[in-house]
Design goal:
The chain is α/β, with parallel strands linked by helices and about 1000 residues long. The protein is built from 38 helices and 23 strands. It folds into 4 domains: about 180 residues, Glycogen Phosphorylase B (Rossmann fold); about 200 residues, Glycogen Phosphorylase B (Rossmann fold), CATH 3.40.50; about 300 residues, ABC transporter transmembrane region fold; about 140 residues, Rossmann fold, CATH 3.40.50. Strands 3-2-1-4-5-6-7 form a 7-stranded parallel sheet, sandwiched between helices.
Length: about 1000
């Protein structure tokens, strides 16, 4: 779906962050169109620059406001004009305080949703911005965990900690096995002797501050060089600066580089860095450094007056006292030289900083799932969900009503019953008028005989209509719930593996259960009430106007006044309801973890921790529901007050007119009954608005799932596989969506038919990713995988997976009988075949010893059985499937020696005459493989049989020596028993 996005980043650091987010968003949705305010990085990312910050002078310090305010105001005007003319689907803001907050307020006024990636530092100063931030942003993404805690403690509940981009970008630069080589290569490239001590110098990003800082820094450099000749200084040139804005004396060994900030931080020995985000980058790079901050006296007074911080480096905010801070008058050449010398040569100081930097890395992973990819991708997924919502909102009710289609005639019948039931209310006041005036006042005996029969007939018709509308709408509602659940289940099973990495099973269950029930309530209770009570109101208004137009005019004046609070309360209810459903999902996920992991909880004595964690989340949910109930409860009294004003006016005017003889008592009382009957459906209708909003929020969460498309798609015109079962990987590359880190790089491998190929290597080498490509659980980003010479991307899922049997390390059994678990892959198998598969898997004996034998129900996950027993059942399942290709993913890794030997016998039976791809950490299990493939960092580094690889004395030999003792070649894990 085509979407327009406007992005606003007013500073160089924000420009880099915004570019990373844009790149990740494009990897998720290539059809997005971006424009906005930024600099060089956003331009390179493909954003059409409405405002170029290099030209607009958007970057400001306190003393620069007067000089550049005209340019900034013009930039703001241009951005507002773009929002008005383009009406984008989303406005993304990156930092830049007041400018972006004002832009966000304007966007909200014209109906453009706002996504804040890296909000202004309200935790440091200008806390008055918190209320503005709360009003203007649909979602806020932060890159420091303490920001999330701070904002939530101040009542902002739409905050997401997505990780830290600097941590993601820097961590791969310092891999141990190649760091020194990379360093030498880089320093030679920039003309620096690798044997010298390199100091990274970050003087700032604005011309004025750079000139001021460098005058002092150059003096410090000379002091250092007088003592130590083997020092070289490297300065990164900030974006937007021209070459003539950093002038270096010719006698100083200083190199200036543009766009290489990460490399300079990674390969230097020490750093001299101005306050700002570069501090955190240096810490994540492991670079010993000190921070400095020197500005004008005027700016200094403002900072001290408004910034509520005792330390100014982001590193010290995360962990106090980590790096020295040289501020204002302390920023002198002698002081700079002395601290730099300590950072270069004092190992205690260097080690102390390194320890603190490691703790900061751990802090930045706080609250992130192990499966999380990177900060940009996490933020991009959240932004993408906002884009999808902006697309779906106008169509939400229409999409819900499409599920009513199969029940069209039942639904129409229910509607007719509602119309009859609602219209019958309008008959009551008229009937009452005839009773009062015709029977009691005019004493019409004939009318007295007719009216009881009319009342009974009226009650029969009304009762049948009431029964019809209730039962038929319930029938439609339950049918819709059934169909939505079927669609959800069908769609979830089609989704690719990466979807389940970021969506917990408990959250999905909450959507299938409670959210679907909200949709049913929307259709049966809310929709029915809207139609039924709408008809009642219409009929009663017609009746009231028929009885007395003047009184009717007085009565209905109060009703329109009730629309505004209903509208306002409804919007609030929608937000609270959705948040409540999300919190139910989170609570369910937490409860599921406690139940499934109850043995771990008890083993580590963490019961109180889990109780406290659950109670805290449960309290959050309770608070959300109480807010929702408060809004719901306010709706009634507000409309009660407005309605009572209308009724009071009618009684006063109508009673006076009866007294003076302008109308009869029958006219007035009949009208009064119509008014009271009118007030009841109106009050119900206003209260029903909250139910509608809850139902729509449930529908929104359901369609969020249904709108997720699988990343691995089945081809429309599949081609058949050949009779051959050889597997070949052709130059395969793979990385997860939005992540720049390659999991597999240029992997080529041939697995001959009927041969046994083992994949070995340290954790994270890419082994499991490689085998996941074979059944197309994931898709390569480049290259292809073939079976029998046919590209599997062109083969139907059913045919491809029919050829493959998988036995994994973590065996999953269904909460069913052992028989049904074995027969799962071949439900048409005979009992003799099932028993034969159990015998071949060495499972028959233990199954026979069970009281119920093959009819034993194994419990959730199969945990009533031991690990070895579960594994043998899974092997029996694979044997029964009789697939020609077998994938074994560490099938014995979690077993004890006895269970491993039993399972190993079963595996040997399973492997016969099959093409086998095996992952094994225990090399003793794969020494007799036809081919052993050694992987490291997503690449194949060695291939051969056991003897050949041992003789190479390479990676395999190292792995082998780690697992086997020198004496007798006994595996380490066996010698311990």
């Amino acid at each position: 779906m085509f979407h327009k996005v406007i992005i606003s980043a007013g500073e160089p650091s924000g420009d880099v962050l915004a570019a990373g987010l844009v790149t990740a968003l494009k990897s998720i949705n290539p059809e997005l169109e971006f424009s906005g305010m930024g600099g060089e990085s956003l331009g390179h990312a493909g954003v059409k620059l409405i405002v170029d910050i290099a030209e607009s002078g958007s970057v400001m310090g306190f003393t620069e406001v007067g000089l550049r305010i005209g340019r900034v105001l013009n930039a703001h005007r241009q951005m507002k004009q773009a929002l008005l003319s383009d009406k984008p689907d989303l406005l993304i803001l990156v930092d830049f305080g007041d400018f972006n907050l004002r832009l966000a307020s304007f966007a909200r006024k014209i109906g453009v949703p706002v996504f804040y990636f890296v909000p202004p530092k309200v935790w440091a100063w200008r806390k008055s911005r918190i209320s503005v931030l709360k009003k203007v942003a649909q979602k806020i993404c932060v890159i420091y965990p303490y920001e999330k805690k701070f904002l939530e403690s101040n009542g902002i509940d739409n905050v997401h900690y997505v990780g830290n981009p600097w941590a993601d970008e820097i961590k791969n630069l310092k891999a141990e096995n190649s760091y020194q080589d990379k360093r030498k290569e880089y320093l030679k490239k920039i003309g620096v002797d690798p044997s010298k001590k390199v100091i990274a110098v970050f003087p700032g990003s604005r011309p004025g501050e750079i000139r001021k800082h460098l005058d002092i820094l150059f003096k410090a450099f000379r002091i250092l060089l007088h003592k130590h000749k083997d020092i070289h200084f490297v300065i990164p040139q900030a974006q937007g600066l021209t070459d003539d804005q950093i002038l270096v004396p010719q006698d100083l060994p200083v190199t200036i580089r543009r766009g290489e900030q990460r490399e300079i931080l990674a390969f230097a020995h020490a750093g001299i860095i101005k306050s700002g985000t570069s501090n955190l980058e240096a810490a994540l790079s492991g670079l010993p450094f000190f921070m400095f901050f020197k500005t004008s006296k005027f700016t200094s007074v403002i900072v001290k007056g408004f910034v509520g911080l005792k330390e100014y480096s982001p590193v010290n905010i995360l962990r106090s006292g980590t790096v020295p801070e040289i501020l204002q008058n302390d920023f002198q050449p002698d002081r700079i030289a002395a601290i730099t010398e300590q950072l270069l040569f004092d190992e205690n100081i260097r080690n102390q900083q390194a320890k603190s930097f490691n703790e900061i890395r751990s802090m930045l992973s706080e609250g992130l799932d192990d499966k999380a990819q990177n900060a940009y991708l996490n933020a991009a997924l959240l932004a993408d969900s906002e884009l999808k919502k902006s697309q779906k909102k106008p169509k939400l009710l229409k999409r819900v009503l499409t599920y009513v289609g199969p029940f069209k005639w039942t639904f129409i019948s229910a509607l007719l019953c509602m119309i009859v039931f609602g219209a019958s209310d309008g008959f009551l006041p008229i009937l009452l008028k005839h009773i009062l005036d015709g029977v009691f006042q005019e004493k019409n005996l004939e009318l007295l005989y007719i009216i009881p029969a009319i009342i009974v007939g009226f009650a029969v018709i009304r009762g049948l209509a009431d029964f019809g509308q209730e039962y038929l709408m319930a029938k439609v509602g339950h049918g819709v719930v059934r169909d939505i659940r079927n669609d959800l289940n069908k769609h979830i099973l089609k989704l690719s593996s990466d979807f389940f990495l970021i969506n917990s099973s408990a959250n999905l269950l909450a959507r299938i259960t409670s959210d679907v029930l909200l949709v049913r309530t929307l259709l049966t209770d809310a929709f029915a009430a809207v139609l039924r009570d709408g008809v009642r109101i219409t009929a009663l208004i017609i009746s009231a106007v028929y009885l007395d137009p003047t009184l009717a005019l007085i009565a209905v004046i109060g009703f329109p006044l009730g629309i505004y609070p209903v509208y306002k309360f409804g919007k609030r209810m929608r937000r609270l309801s959705k948040r409540g459903q999300e919190e139910i999902g989170a609570l369910s996920s937490m409860l599921q973890e406690s139940i499934v992991g109850q043995r771990v909880v008890k083993a580590f004595g963490r019961e109180q921790f889990e109780i406290g964690r659950f109670e805290g989340k449960n309290q959050e949910l309770t608070r959300t529901f109480l807010k929702s109930e408060r809004v719901r409860a306010l709706t009634g009294p507000v409309n009660e007050l407005l309605g009572s004003c209308a009724i009071a006016g009618v009684i006063f005017y109508g009673g006076f007119s009866v007294i003076v003889g302008a109308r009869t008592q029958g006219d007035f009382l009949a009208f009064l009954v119509a008014l009271f009957l009118l007030y009841d459906p109106f009050k119900k209708l206003t209260r029903m608005n909250s139910t509608v909003q809850q139902g729509l929020s449930g529908a929104e969460r359901i369609f969020e799932i249904l709108d997720n498309e699988p990343t691995v798609l089945e081809v429309e015109d599949p081609v058949p596989l050949t009779d051959r079962n050889d597997i070949e990987f052709h130059n395969v590359h793979f990385n997860y969506t939005g992540s720049e880190r390659s999991v597999l790089t240029n992997v080529s491998l041939k697995v001959a038919e009927g041969k046994k190929v083992a994949l070995v290597g340290l954790s994270g080498a890419g082994k499991s990713t490689l085998i996941d490509l074979i059944p197309r659980f994931i898709e390569p980003v480049a290259g292809q995988v073939t079976i029998g010479g046919v590209d599997i991307a062109n083969v139907a899922f059913s045919e491809l997976r029919r050829r493959i049997a998988v036995v994994g390390q973590h065996t999953f059994l269904f909460n069913d009988t052992i028989y049904n678990n074995i027969a799962y892959g071949r439900p048409d198998a005979t009992s003799e075949e099932v028993v034969a598969a159990a015998r071949a898997a060495f499972a028959f004996d233990f199954i026979s010893s069970l009281k119920e034998g093959f009819n034993t129900v194994v419990g959730e996950g199969g945990y009533s059985l031991s690990g070895g027993e579960r594994q043998r059942i899974s092997i029996a399942r694979a044997i029964l499937k009789d697939a020609p290709i077998l994938i074994l993913d560490e099938a014995t890794a979690s077993l004890d020696n006895q269970s491993e030997r039993e399972v190993q016998h079963a595996l040997e039976a399973l492997e016969k005459n099959r093409t086998c791809v095996i992952i094994a950490h225990r090399l003793s299990t794969v020494q007799h493989a036809d081919l052993i493939v050694v992987m490291r960092a997503g690449e194949i580094v060695e291939k051969g049989n056991h003897e050949d690889l041992i003789s190479l004395q390479g990676e395999y030999s190292k792995l082998h020596s780690l697992q086997f003792q020198d004496r007798g070649g006994v595996p380490l894990h066996e010698s311990a028993y």
